[in-house]
Structures are given as C-alpha cells and as structure tokens.
Amino acid sequence: MADESITSGAIRTDQDTAGFWGFTKPQAVAFLVMVAFVVVSPFFLYPVFLMKILCFALFVCAFNLLIGYVGLLSFGHAAYFGMGAYVTGYAAKAWGLPPEFAIPLGGLVGAALGLPFGWLAIRRAGIYFAMITLALAQMVYFFSLQAPFTGGEDGIQAIPRGTLFGVFSLTPDMSMYWVTAIVFLAGFLLIHRIVHSPFGQVLKAIRDNEPRATSLGYRVEDYKLMAFVLSAGLAGIAGGTKALVFNIATLTDVHWTMSGEVVLMSLVGGLGTVFGPVVGAAVIITMQNYLAEFGAWVLVIQGVIFIACVLAFRRGVVGEIGNALRVKL
Amino acid sequence: MLETIIFELEMAAPQIVLGLVNGAFYALLSLGLAVIFGMLNVINFTHGAQFMMGAFVAWMLLHYLGIGYWWALILSPLIVGVVGVIIEKTMISRLYKLDHLYGLLLTFGCALVIEGVFRNNFGVSGLPYAVPPELRGGFDLGFMFLPGYRAWVVLVAIITCLVTWYVIEKTKIGSYLRAATERPQLVQAFGINVPRMMTLTYGAGVALAAFAGVLAAPIYSVRPDMGASFIIIVFAVVVIGGMGSILGSVVTGFALGFLEGMTRVFWPEASATVVFFIMAIVLLTRPAGLFGRA
Fold first, then answer.
1. Tell me, what's the pLDDT at B7?
2. Residue A184 placed within a domain
3. A293 pLDDT exceeds 50?
C-alpha cells in the first residue's frame, strides 16, 4: 500500500457542510468570487478565450469527479469530450438542431459511451484502470478517423451556433458567452450537488476504504459505474459546448494528448479540490494561448509542468492555497 | 477449392508477416514494461518515447558520425539506457513511497518532453533509415516473397525475449531480481543494494525499448510520434496478457500482432481496433489478464 494516496489533497471533512448550499464558508466565498469573475470578465477579456476556459473547466470538473471523489484516474476522457463535440457539431450542422437540444445530445452520447467503457474499466483499479481507459479512448480515436460522419482528418467544420429557443441568436460572441457560462455553472453546481448527496458520500467511502464499503452492503461496482457515466456525460456536454463555441469538432478533441491535457489541468489546479479544476483549466489555457506561436515547445513545457507538479507540487495551486489558509477549497 | 485457398494464402501471407513484425515489437515493448513494472511498480509511460529515441539515436549515429546499423544496435540502447538511468535516479526514485499513479503521471510528462524536443529538432515528417546491406533482399517461399529484414526482426525479437526470460528466470541476478520484486526489504536486509537494482532494471528495460527502436528504424520511418501510437496498443497488450509472467507477455505480443495481421486481410477497417476489442473480451472473461495473477 502506498503511503501517500493520489487523492490525499481531497476534501475529507464533511461535518461542516451545513453552510451555504453545502459549501463551507471559505468555499462559499470562493464560489462567489468565481461567479463574479465569470460575470465581469467578458467585459475586459476576449470572450472566445474565456469560453474556452469555461468549457475546459467543466471538462476538468467532470474528470475530477472520478479522480477526486472515487479515486479513479481515467486516462481516456478525451473520448467522451471528443464524441460530445462530434455529435453536437453534427446535429447542429446536418440536422439543424438548436443548441438547447444539440448540447444535451452531446452529453447523452458521452454518457452512453461511458456506460460500456466504464463497465469494462471498473473491473480493474489503479494503473490498470488508467491503461484500460486510455486504450478504449484510442479505439474511439481510430473510429473517429474512419467513421463517415466525423469528416476524418478534416473534422466537422463551420458548425453553426444556432438560435437558442428559437429566439436568441448565438452568433454574437457575447450571447454564446452567457450560454457557455450558464452551462459551466450548472455543471459545476450539479457536481457539487452529486458530491454532497448520499450517493456522493458512498463514493467517498469507496475511495477511502473500498472493502469496508463493500462489507457495509453497498454495490461498489454500481456506484463506480454511475460516477463514471455522470463524468463521461458532463465531459460530453463540455465537448459539445466547445464545438459550438469554435464551430469545429476535430480529431484533436479525441486524441490521447487531450486526455493528457485534462489530467494536467486537474493536477495543476489540485487533484480532488472543488475549485482546482477551474484554476487548472484557466492556467493551462492561458499558457497555451501565450505559447501558441512556439509550436512544439508547448508539448515540452506541458511535460515539464507535469514533472514539476508530480515531484514538488502535488497539491496543485488550489491545494497549496487551501493548505496555507488551512481551509478546504 | 484448393486454388482459392492458395490464392487466399498469397494474399494473406504478407499481411501475416507484417503482423508478426508488429507482434515482435509488441512483445519487446511489453516485455520491457513488465520487467520495469515488476521491479519498480511503475508503468513506464516514457517507454514509447524511449523506443522512438532508440530509432533517432541510430539515425543520428549514422548521419552525424557515420556509424552504421550494427554498431547502432549496441550503442543506441546503451545511450538511451543511460538517459533512462538518469531519469530514474533524479525523478522516478523519489516517487516509490507515493501512490503508483504518480509514477504514471511523471513518466507521461517525461514522454511529452522527449517527444516535444524531437519534434522541435526534426519536425513531424519521417526520416528514412536504410536497411543494412547484409539484410537486403529476401527469400522466395513460392507463395510469397519474404523480405530478409522482416525475417531478421522477428528472429532477433524472439531471441531477445528468450534471453531476457533466461536471465530473469534461470540466473543468479535474475533470482535476486525476482526476490526483490516480492520482498524488497528482506532482500535489502541480506545486503543486496535494492535501490541500485531498481535503477539498473529501469535502465535495462529502457535499453530494451531503444533496441526495439533501432530494429524498427528501417521498417517504419523514424518520426517523433512513432512511439506514442505504439505504446497505447502495448498498454492494451499488457492488460490482455497481465504482467504476471515474462513469457506470457511475449506470447501475447506475438499472438496479437498475428491476429492484427489476419484482421487486415479479412476486415481491414477493423485492424486498428482489434487489439482493443480483444482487451474488452479479456476484461469480461479474465479481468486479471490471460497470464496475470488476480
């Protein structure tokens, strides 16, 4: 048994969750700061850049639901993100489906893909779980490369953002921004709700002591699978929203480097923290934005950040701040 | 009837040979992964990048120093193995007391760095590496033409796997290794330097990957992403075989390469995904892997 678990930075005190919507006081403050930033920032910063952060923040939150609360490291989350992007993009472009149906459809397909994959992967734990999810995601990549509806190497291009409820055109960046912001906040609060429900308590029990949870009569496999499907579905929603924001769904979204990126964002923000995914996504997307002109150096720098985080910075940004302030964020 | 069978065989044989060549690389890479995992409890995500480095070092030896294939077959694994030892000494060795997943994340980061550096210096297009003159040509087997180099790769891979198996299962060093895998503290108490064994094991596993890389250089073009596409399939191979036995991972590697070749004959579109399907079936029936211990 390893001395330090990968989720040792995770929230373990649940007796003080009675406060504001299940947030502790510091978390409530952090949440309000985050909401304020989401509302104010588009007036100062480029909305498309912010939308990218929000989409990835939701993606990382979905990933974090598995690693932070069930202790499962998925190395293949690009499959659900990318499939969500493809399906939302295809539905919006080929069928002219409005965004209020196209995005949830992406989420449904992500969850539907997560069901068999999760069912297979939860048979093993730890390193094997990571390898299995990676291999299954690679299968989705090859499928996307060959399937007719994904457009192969070109991807699906010129995806229309459509008109929300038949009233609000999302073509202007600001309209799309508010939709993205609402999708992100709804997803964030949903995950928060899941984690603090009785279901979430059982998940944490499984993470901390699986044999014990089994002996208490919980069907551990069912709980793990449910969490996996929820995580995959939310990743699909994040991918679908991203497809509408950028009008494009490509092989990049299903590639293994995308799976690696979500792990990296989660690690930088702090594994198993509530706000770490958001901070991690913001940090990595900002970095990519500034380094875009350096080409392959982005890969090197991401690798170096990976190494630095694992060797010296395992709590991540939010974990370190929380540790310094002695609060769980 | 007989003619159709012969015709099918003529169509199938080259694909099956190609499958066996792929299988040789699956076997060599999964063998290295299994050796490293057995001793260090780390899944070496850098394995693919080290395979790629092996091919690149061979290419650089030829183009910058004029050192040919045969010396590269020895020098390249040594050079990459030394780099591996440095990685283990400076980074991986700090993680043994932590959750094993950190080892996976760290080596993933190393793989990104290595791949990125090679991409910066050599671009993404492949570099050619010629088949050594001694192995050019081939054998006409009647129903097919067997290229000499491919036959060589399969032969060398089998010999390397058998030698590795012999060293681990039948020699004194191998017995120390196996003992240290089971009970590291106890073995250390007997005065054996276990940390140094771990370092050398990692170096040896990495050298094996680089050796496979040199073998691969004349077959596949030498390119920075050649390892990444291989390593994910090898992960599936490792899940299928289980990491319990050395011979198990070798047999699984060859068998899956062969199956992939067969699939390419009968249903080409599925050839890229067949290994993953088999992984799914194995997970359903024998979750610990075909040769694994539950």
1. 66
2. yes
3. yes
Residue entry with tokens 């944490």 = A204
CB contact under 8 A, A307 and B115: no
Q: Could you report the per-residue pLDDT of B54-77, keeping only the tens digit for each?
A: 999 999 998 898 888 899 899 999
pLDDT, residue A1, reads 36
CA distance A274 to A27: 8
Q: Which candidate in A74, A138, A141, A297 is best for mutational testing of the B interface (most B CBs within 10 A)?
A: A138
On whether residue A9 sits in a domain, the answer given is no
Would you call A168 helix, strand, or coil by DSSP? strand
Place of tokens 């939709």: A179
Residue A11 covered by a domain: no
The whole-angstrom separation of Cα A135 and Cα A133 is 5
Q: How far apart are CA B218 and CA B129, in angstroms?
A: 5
Q: What b/e sequence results for B131-142 when a residue is b if at least 16 CB atoms lie within 10 Å of its CB, and e otherwise?
A: bbeebeeeeeee
Tokens of B287: 């979750």
SS (H, E, C) chain B: CHHHHHHHHHHHHHHHHHHHHHHHHHHHHHHHHHHHHHHHCCCCCCHHHHHHHHHHHHHHHHHHHCCCHHHHHHHHHHHHHHHHHHHHHHCHHHHCCECHHHHHHHHHHHHHHHHHHHHHHHCCCCECCCCCHHHCCEEECCCCEEEHHHHHHHHHHHHHHHHHHHHHHHCHHHHHHHHHHHCHHHHHHCCCCHHHHHHHHHHHHHHHHHHHHHHHCCCCCECCCHHHHHHHHHHHHHHHHCCCCHHHHHHHHHHHHHHHHHHHHHCHHHCCCHHHHHHHHHHHHCCCCCCCCC
Q: Considering the domain boundaries, does residue A95 fall inside one? A: yes
- Adjacent-strand bridge partners of A249: A156
CB-based contact, B287 to chain A, within 8 Å: yes
pLDDT in tens, A246-280: 988 888 899 988 998 999 999 999 888 889 899 99
Residue A9 has pLDDT above 70, yes or no: no
In 3D, which of A19, A30, A38 has the Cα closest to residue A269? A30
* DSSP 3-state of A225: helix
pLDDT at residue number A317: 86
Question: Which tokens hold the place of B56?
Answer: 């690149």
What CATH number should be reported for the domain holding residue A314?
1.10.3470
Domain residues of chain B, as ranges? Answer: 24-129+146-224
Res. A174 pLDDT band, cuts 50 70 90: confident
Structural domain of residue A62, as residue ranges? 20-325
Per the structure, the count of domains in chain A is 1
Res A238: pLDDT: 94
Whether residue B269 and residue A297 make contact (CB cut-off 8 A), yes or no, is no
Cα dihedral across residues A126, A131, A132, A136: positive or negative? positive
pLDDT tens-place string over residues A121-143: 888 888 888 888 988 998 899 88
Q: Is A211 on the interface with B (CB under 8 A)?
A: no
Query: How many CB pairs lie under 8 A apart between chains A and B?
Result: 134
